[in-house]
Amino acid sequence: MMWDPEALNSLDGEDIAVLLQSWEGFHECTDVLLRDRGDLSAGADLVPFVSSLCRYGLDSLVQDHFLQSLEETFKSKAVLRFWKQFDAYSVSTGEGTGFQEENWIEGVLSKSLEEICLEKHYEEKCLLMLIHALQLHEESIADRKMEIQEYQTCLTSRHQLMVSSILLATLPMHFPEILRLYFKGKLEELSNMIDVHHEEDACQFQLDNDSLRHQNRRPISVGEMDIDTHCHGCNHNKDMLVNNIGKVVRDLRSLGFTSITEDAYASSILLLLKDKVNALAGDDYRNPVLVSIKEWIQAVPLQFLHALLVYLGDSPVHDASSGLKSPLAASPSYPGIEMPSEGLVRWQLRLEYCAYETLQDLRIGKLFEIIVDYPESSPAIEDLRQCLEYTGQHSKLVDSFISSLKYRLLTAGASTNDILHQYVSTIKALKTIDPTGVFLEAVGEPIRDYLRGRKDTIKCIVTMLTDGTGGNSTGSGNSGDSLLEELNREAENQEGADYDDDTNLDDKQAWINAERHY
To answer: Which among 88, 317, 321, 343 could disulfide-bond with 97, CB atoms 3.0 to 4.6 Å apart, if both were Cys?
Structure first.
């Protein structure tokens, strides 16, 4: 029933007295419930007052007043105290009173979330009492029936929106940074646990095999290792860590911080992944690292995300009720995870792309040095090839490498022999990355243009081709093959050119002689 102001004119003195008495009683019961987490037993006193007010069509007024009281109480009792606990943190310096303690963020964040969530849960209990009183009134009217779920959905949604709005409106600028630091620390702790566990497994594996050799028994393989006994404690610690993080995430979600929370742990995961890629790749170009990076993704962030999503009740990829399967379920299997959620599959794709892109950028940034070390650096070239196949950012390689060539190689201080040697290595390396030769055509053009301006280019080329080693002390001869192939293309382009002076004629004859000799 909606309140009709004109209905006031039809009320007699007795009705008005009853109405005022009911409102005062409702107001007093509300104060008793909300004041200093009052006595929940006062909720029973709400029923007659709510019923009386509803009979006069004041349903919406009752609900609005109660929600406003909840809002004022939440502001004064919970919100101010919640934010005050983070005042010790300074976003400008990353330090503050008490912040230098190692576990400051974890301790303050967990405690403050627990306190404010208790306040929120208490208010939700009070709201349920109002819903119960409204439901009893509806059930007393024969021609009006309303399910309690309808009241609950409407009022709890309004209360949740109120809580989220207040907190987001008063959000300090440094709070997202605090969340990011918290998740960064927890993920590093988890990564260290797994690293130590893997080292212990490797040591135990070596000890077991050494012992078996001394006993003239067959050594065991890694796949045959039984590590359940000595990894139980490690798994327990990991479970405890993830559960603690999950509780923090759940509390943050319940307060309306879902987006900020996901951004915080997502940025922490991606930052940790980039640090791991940098640590594994470094300046070592003689060992492949892409496989190790993907194994780490499976072992740390995906295991963490799986446990977190399960803790938070994320749905699996398989929908048992419909018998349908998400198209994302065609992704690779996950060690120890029988049924990955769709959220986990999406995270895997996101993390792998980030890993490929990060490694790709590292290798592109050092491509000049990598090619100098070729063919010893061929593992780094192979990693780069796979990264580019995944990311499709081929133009980034071409632009970056041409820039490096112009700045570091195609200068007056570089000898023609050095330029030619680098060109030979570039030919081989880029053909590994792109057998079609498109990259090589784009990158080789500025090198060829520059070499045409050097007076000793033909002489150095002839020397490289006629000594049978391509100028390479290893004597492999492959450099000459690659160089001849590329320079033949240049010769074909020059066939239609006019040679008016003796120098050009001599260069052309030297080119022809070199081709014939090789």
So the answer is: 88
Residue 69 has a pLDDT of 92
CA distances to 8, 18, 80, 106 from 171, rounded to whole Å, are 44, 44, 11, 19
Q: Lowest-confidence range among 120-134, 153-167, 369-383, 443-457?
A: 443-457
Query: What pLDDT shows up at residue 12?
Result: 66
**The tokens of 287 are what?**
């060992």
Closest CA to 282 of 351, 383, 402: 383
- Let me know the angle formed at the C-alpha of 279 by 274 and 281, rounded to the nearest 5 degrees: 90
* CA dist., res. 128 & res. 155, Å (int): 9
pLDDT in tens, 479-508: 555 566 665 655 555 454 444 444 455 555
CA dist 369 and 302 (Å) reads: 33
Q: How far apart are CA 192 and CA 87, in angstroms?
A: 30
CB 204, CB 184: distance < 8 Å: no
Closest CA to 72 of 133, 168, 159: 159
Is residue 37 within 8 Å of residue 91, measured between CB atoms? no
List, as one string, the DSSP characters of 140-190. TSTT----HHHHHHHHHHHHHHHHHHHHHHT--TTHHHHHHHHHHHHHHHH
Question: Strand, helix or coil at 337?
Answer: strand
- Cα–Cα distance measured from residue 195 to residue 203, given in angstroms and rounded to the nearest whole number: 12
459 token code pair: 């002489």
Query: In whole angstroms, how far apart are CA 4 and each of 8, 64, 87, 204, 326?
Result: 8, 16, 49, 81, 53
- Higher-pLDDT residue of 61 and 213 is 61
pLDDT tops 90 at residue 204: no
Write the CB contacts of 79 (distance below 8 Å, at least 6 apart in sequence). 116, 166, 167, 170
- Backbone φ, ψ for residue 334 (5° rounding): -120, 125
Q: In degrees, to the nearest 5, what angle opens at C-alpha 74 toward C-alphas 73 and 78?
A: 115
SS (H, E, C) 87-117: CCCCCCCCCCCCCCCCCHHHHHHHHHHHHHH
| Contacts with 331 (C-beta within 8 Å, 6 or more apart), sequence order | 340, 345, 348, 349
Which residue ranges make up each domain of the chain?
5-172, 176-357, 393-517
What's at 157, amino acid-wise? S
Q: What is the mean pLDDT of the chain?
A: 75
Candidate from 6-20, 92-106, 173-187, 338-352 with smallest mean pLDDT: 92-106
- Measured between alpha carbons, how far is 145 from 122 in angstroms, rounded to an integer? 28
Phi and psi angles of residue 513, each rounded to the nearest 5 degrees, phi first: -60, -40
- pLDDT (average), residues 254-272: 91
Please state, in angstroms and rounded to a whole number, the distance separating the CA atoms of residues 430 and 367.
10
- Identify any residues that bridge with 318 across adjacent strands, giving them in sequence order: 325
